[in-house]
Amino acid sequence: MWATCLLDTIYVDISAAAYEAVCYLAKKGHSRVGMIAVSAGTAPRQKRIQRYQLALASHHLPLDEMIIQGGSFTELGG
User: Fold this and answer.
1) Total domain count for the chain?
2) What is the value of pTM for the model shown?
3) Domain-located, residue 24
4) Domain residue limits at 35
5) Taking the CB of the first residue and of the last residue of the chain, which one, N or C, has fewer CB atoms within 10 A?
6) What backbone torsions phi and psi does residue 34 show, to the nearest 5 degrees?
7) What average pLDDT score do residues 44-61 get?
8) Is the pLDDT of residue 60 over 80?
9) Tens digits of per-residue pLDDT, 5-40?
């Protein structure tokens, strides 16, 4: 007998995802990794950027503030 499970919410750990993405790219040999984050002054942006910076540091990659850009939660913003 099959059980039915309905989900109406999916949670994504955005800061962990940012960290893992940078680590993945660094392991593939990329040395300059940018970031599109939501608008300045929001908690999600700060969390993502902190983990992004941590991942860069753990792979001895330089931080370039010029390649951290703001965006919105839309296709155009991405």
Assistant:
1) 1
2) 0.76
3) yes
4) 14-71
5) N
6) -90, 180
7) 92
8) yes
9) 777 788 888 889 999 999 999 999 999 999 988 777
Bridge partners of residue 68, in order along the sequence? 35
Residue 4 falls inside a structural domain: no
CATH number reported for the structural domain that contains residue 47 in this entry: 3.40.50.2300
Q: Is 21 domain-assigned?
A: yes
CA distance 20 to 45: 16
The per-residue pLDDT for 29 is: 96
Answer whether 56's CB lies under 8 Å from 50's CB: no
- The per-residue DSSP string of the chain comes to -------------HHHHHHHHHHHHHHTT-----EEEE-TT-HHHHHHHHHHHHHHHHTTPPP-GGGEEEE-SSTTT-
Q: What is the largest CA-CA distance in the chain?
A: 56
Q: Is residue 3 part of a domain?
A: no
How many CB atoms within 10 Å of residue 45?
18
Say which amino acid occupies 39. Answer: S
